[in-house]
Specification:
Helix content is 61%, strand content 3%. It has 159 residues and is mainly α. It has one domain. Helix 1 crosses helix 2 and helix 2 crosses helix 8. The longest helix is centred in the first third of the chain and has 15 residues. The two termini are 19 Å apart.
Length: 159
Amino acid sequence: MGIAACDLSQHVIRPTLLYLERHSATAEALLLGAAACQSALGSELDAPQGHGLYRISEQHHQTLWDKHLAFDPELASRVRGLASQHAFLEAPHLELTVNLRYATAIAWMLIERENLELPAADDLLAMGRIWCKVFQPQGRQRDFLEAWQRCIEPVSQVA
């Protein structure tokens, strides 16, 4: 059993995006959809393909730091500020599994570095395209839609 979509949005995704000064309804929905696709909102946190809510691979994590964040010290400092002080130094990739806000920040940075135009917050097909490009190049937009319907839509209909 994963995290409730409304709780993940309210307590993890939104505060992280606000902290990074990157919040928008689309950014929030896109990360929620990515978490639904990648780990069923946290039901499956570790897999050979990657770590945590967003199943980020160690290679993508390292490349993001080396080729993107390293060139923006202020942003790197903000992202690093979300990581555990000592644990990050010993096992930085483990932070992707155990630290939801850090994982969310890294997931957003992976999206942001692609420099894509963000769609409307209700354009699930366009968000599915972004998810495929950033997280699952072999994925299909239909996978994004199905994960949204399975993990997010039932909760939003009740609220």
